[in-house]
Amino acid sequence: MDKRFLKNPYADYDGSAACTQHLFDPHGKLTEEFAGRLSNTISELLSHMENGLKSADPRDCTGYTGWCGIALLYLHLADVFRETSFLQRALDYASRSLQCLTRRSVTFLCGDAGPLAVAAVAYHRLQRPQESDDCLGRLLQLHRTVVKGERNLPDELLYGRIGYLFSLVFINQQFGQEKIPMQYMQEICDAILASGENLSKKCRGQDKTPLLYEWYQEYYVGAAHGLAGIYYFLMQPGFGVGDERLLRLVKPSMDYLCHLKFPSGNYPPCIGDSRDELVHWCHGSPGVIYMLLQAHKVYGDDRYLADALECGQVIWQRGLLKKGYGLCHGAAGNAYAFLALYKHTHNPHHLYRACKFAEWCMDYGRHGCRTPDTPFSLFEGMAGTIYFLADLLQPLRSKFPAFEI
């Protein structure tokens, strides 16, 4: 277990004003000094990233490791810093991603839906409606494939239906209106629920969990490929799941997942896996926490909040990973869990922890962590760390990219 993370060197929040006075005020507003450090680090890392991207794979269109992820980062920076130049950079990278679409996958992070959605938003913000509408039209052409489950489409986030669903939600959020009718989301959720019921019956597991999902013949638990990520989306308001199915299908399935929790408060990567090792957004507490917090909102049961707080404790103790600083399996992605807890509870304890993980990230490359395969990408590398540091400047508006709604 100790081979996967580094010892957390920071003292935890003690409730005193002195503990946070150099980070944020009693209302959660970051101090000028700390916000300045964040902004300066963002500028420095951006320069490193741009230089490093000169040797990146020119054919990788994806949000996860390719050009679309860089475009998404610049869209985010344009939101945070209100600089039009960032919008143009976003469009430059989005255009590059459109030139090398996968023509296989349909999701936001690992397929063609992400480049089309991000480009549509960039064109829209730069007052180029014809190009924006063209991208939207191409995005919606994928809808039938998703609903019908063609190409043996799974249901999870990175390669499945949820990954396409996020693309549609992203469009409506970014346009600030129901640009894509909610009927599209409802049809996808109906297909996801039917898929989960069918697999549960096939495996004769409906007594334990009415919904069951697999990816590569494994029943994954976490946010990226598994149950927690799917249930998080099914519990979102407005997607047409409805109170009856939320109670009959989603809640007992989610309760079954909750029973898989290790004594430590962490969660296994797959059903049946007894190894309490992974504390990543993709596998473990940092991804499951979003499902638990949404469940607390929807069902009002304080057990879900208690479990989420346990997740926070696990991440504080074991979340500074030797794998690095990225979103999928790194310190920045783990820190988003603290921001989610802060938004839900408004307890400064969680904002403090997010700030401390940010301080770790601001010492990028100084801890002997592993260099990821795509060191400047959004989900494995430096771009994701920059995204998190920028989000920390506005903690109550922060959202884990390409996942949190």
List the helices and strands and how they pair.
Elements: H1 17-20, H2 32-52, H3 67-81, H4 84-98, H5 113-125, H6 129-140, H7 143-148, H8 161-175, H9 182-202, H10 227-234, H11 242-258, H12 285-299, H13 302-318, H14 331-345, H15 348-362, H16 382-392
Helix pairs in contact: 2-16, 3-4, 3-5, 3-16, 4-5, 5-6, 5-8, 8-9, 10-11, 10-12, 12-13, 12-14, 13-14, 14-15, 14-16, 15-16
Characterization of this structure:
It is found in: Cell membrane; Cytoplasm. Zn(2+) binds at residues 282, 328-329. The chain is an all-alpha fold. The chain has 16 helices and no strands. Helix 3 (67-81) runs parallel beside helix 5 (113-125) and helix 14 (331-345) runs parallel beside helix 16 (382-392). The longest helix has 21 residues, at 32-52. It is globular, with a radius of gyration of 20 Å.
Name the descriptors.
single chain; about 400 residues; mainly alpha; 16 helices; about 55% helix; Glutathione S-transferase LANCL1; zinc; 6hp_glycosidase-like_sf; LanC-like_prot_euk
Q: How confident is the prediction overall: mean pLDDT?
A: 96
State the helical fraction: 40-55%
Give the number of helices: 16
Elements, N to C (H/E) = HHHHHHHHHHHHHHHH
Q: What best-fitting shape do the alpha-carbon axes yield?
A: globular
| Total beta-strand segments | 0
Name the beta content range.
under 5%
Distance from first to last alpha carbon: 32 Å
What structural class do helix, strand and pairing data support? mainly alpha
Largest sheet: none
Gyration radius (Cα, Å) is 20 Å
Give start-end ranges of low-pLDDT stretches.
Answer: none
